[in-house]
Amino acid sequence: MDGVKGRVCVTGASGYLASWLVKRLLLCGYHVIGTVRDPANERKLAHLWRLEGAKERLRLVRAQLLDEGSFDDAIMGCEGVFHTASPVIKPSFDPKTEILEPAVKGTLNVLRSCKKNPSLRRLVLTSSSSTVRARDDFDYKVPLDESSWSSVQLCETLQVWYALAKTLAEKAAWDFCNENNIDLVTVLPTFVIGPSLPPDLCSTASDVLALLKGESEQFQRHGRMGYVHIDDVALCHILVFEHDGANGRYLCSSTVIDNNELVSMLSARYPSLPIPKRFLQLDRPHYEFNTSKITSLGFKFRSIEEMFDDCIQSLVEQGHLSLHTAHQRPTFKVAV
Ligand SMILES: NC(=O)c1ccc[n+]([C@@H]2O[C@H](COP(=O)([O-])OP(=O)(O)OC[C@H]3O[C@@H](n4cnc5c(N)ncnc54)[C@H](OP(=O)(O)O)[C@@H]3O)[C@@H](O)[C@H]2O)c1
């Protein structure tokens, strides 16, 4: 542990990314108030209580994104708030109710609680690179940076609800924080890859498992995509919280790669897995990300090989995946 630090709140603490962020914050010495929907759900929260420092410095409290004032108690007295809670689901019948409202109204609900807290130094919002790249009017020879915003109109036309929700939520956060003088920094991760701490795989981790088991549907749709290690995303949140000079938006991405390049890298590394060989090429604009804003703060991203190695190792150890031959990664405990 780095030494005892102040009190911070993490919303949606039991989620995939937030659990890792809680782990890193505890290791740094912070006192963490995590909000969860059901603090009595022992199965869903056991992984948080097992974290180093949790018994001494973690408190879990109930909060719901759409319940007005629900985050007041959790946030009051915290010097930092990490707002990660937001639906990452495939909408079933009503995307506006299932995704848009919790993301946008829920963010404003959290911000109103931040406004009531005189101890707040900085709010870090987990946004997404989907708030940057969903547009068709950019020069593909120039890497996209934080000055780029996805087109709300294009998102609506294409019905890409997640990108629309994240874009509207981040814009609403900037408007609210500018009006109310709240120090906001946003982190814009690409597709997060790495070990999962929660017992159930979240939507994106399930998609990765499906790919490794030979299902191509989701990654066919992804086409070209940026990827980032889950530990890098957590560390990036903490860096921009702690760094006095951090401000504005920060893209958080290691590598942008076409789905065909991704599967050829993975198949070569894990020949025993039934990873799809090729995807149909989609007619979508080529893009890269310029991450010099975060790297200029001294941040270094792990490689795409390392993030998938760590992810696959943990899927194997958790019994989600089996490598039929034992020779690829000698350090693995192979599930049988
Ligand atoms: N995974 C990625 O590749 C990726 C990439 C870029 C950005 N992000 C962002 O990272 C954040 C975390 O996502 P994740 O991948 O870790 O997904 P996740 O595991 O599904 O986490 C989402 C969290 O939000 C909470 N939540 C959802 N609706 C809620 C509501 N109505 N009230 C209270 N809490 C609610 C969930 O609570 P429950 O556990 O109770 O469901 C969960 O803790 C999100 O803001 C997401 O947009 C993720």
Automatic annotation (TrEMBL):
| Domain NAD-dependent epimerase/dehydratase as annotated: residue spans | 8-247
Keywords linked to the UniProt accession: NADP, Oxidoreductase
Keyword presence, NADP: yes
Q: GO terms for molecular function, please? A: oxidoreductase activity, acting on the CH-OH group of donors, NAD or NADP as acceptor
| The keyword NADP is annotated on this UniProt entry | yes
Q: Which Pfam families match?
A: Epimerase (PF01370)
Family matches, as InterPro entries:
Epimerase_deHydtase, NAD(P)-bd_dom_sf, NAD(P)_dehydrat-like
Note the PANTHER family from the entry. Answer: NAD DEPENDENT EPIMERASE/DEHYDRATASE, TETRAKETIDE ALPHA-PYRONE REDUCTASE 1
Q: Its family?
A: Belongs to the NAD(P)-dependent epimerase/dehydratase family. Dihydroflavonol-4-reductase subfamily.
The entry's protein name is Tetraketide alpha-pyrone reductase 1, dihydroflavonol 4-reductase-like1
Q: What is the lineage of its organism?
A: Eukaryota, Viridiplantae, Streptophyta, Embryophyta, Tracheophyta
